[in-house]
Amino acid sequence: MTMKYHPTASTRHALIGLLIAFGSTVALAQLRTGESVYQSLCMACHETGVAQAPKRGDAQAWKPLIAEGQHVLSAHAFIGVRAMPARGGDSALSLEEFSRAVAWMARSAGGDWQDPDAAMMQRIRFEAEKRLDEEIHEKQKLKASLQRQNQ
Ligand code: HEC
Question: How far apart are CA 37 and CA 132, in angstroms?
């Protein structure tokens, strides 16, 4: 007699759940450390202070930045601020790896920021979206004022 395996719906759901869990573990394992992101990218400007970039380990320069709060500073730096390019200039860099690099730089200058957990990542993402909305709004106002001038 041959036995056929017919998974029940709940077994199927459990299997799918396992696959998803496995997939996200792989994604987590692939995240680079803040230090390695720093060394491969941020260091180009932040090691010597190119264009007034706050230098790694410079406690005085980082004090007011750390005071802004981890979610605010990570979000604003990610979307770019003055001479600091968005994503540090790497269009493939994820928000999470970027934020790890910011936390590592803050620690190098006396801060106690850790790699962001899920809750912190949500606050960083929310702050980045809010700031982008504000910038888009400012640009729309500028465009509207040009259109009025062209009439
Ligand atoms: C091309 C040069 C350059 C690279 C690469 C770069 N930065 Fe910057 N960064 C700057 C400059 C310049 C500033 C100062 C901006 C200002 O205040 O005018 C800055 C400022 C910052 C700040 C403070 C932002 C604020 O709100 O004042 C953070 C945080 C930061 N960078 C993180 C990073 C991280 C993390 C990386 C790598 C992923 C990175 N930077 C890569 C040039 C760079």
Answer: 24
Residue 122 CB contacts under 8 Å (≥ 6 apart), including other chains: none
The dihedral built from the CA positions of residue 39, 41, 43 and 44, taken in this order, carries a sign that is: positive
The Cα 110–Cα 95 span in angstroms is 23
DSSP 5: -
Residue whose CA is at the smallest distance from ligand 1 atom 42: 84
**Which of 33, 38, 46, 104 has most ligand 1 atoms within 8 Å of CB, for mutation?**
46
Residue 59: closest CA among 105, 93, 25, 12? 105
Q: In CATH terms, is domain 10-150 a member of 1.10.760.10?
A: yes
- Ligand 1: does its nearest atom lie under 6 Å from the Cβ of 98? yes
Q: What is the pTM of this model?
A: 0.84
pLDDT digits (tens, 9 = 90+) for 114-133: 999 999 999 999 999 999 99
Classify residue 38 by its DSSP letter: I
Cα dihedral sign, 102-88-62-37: positive
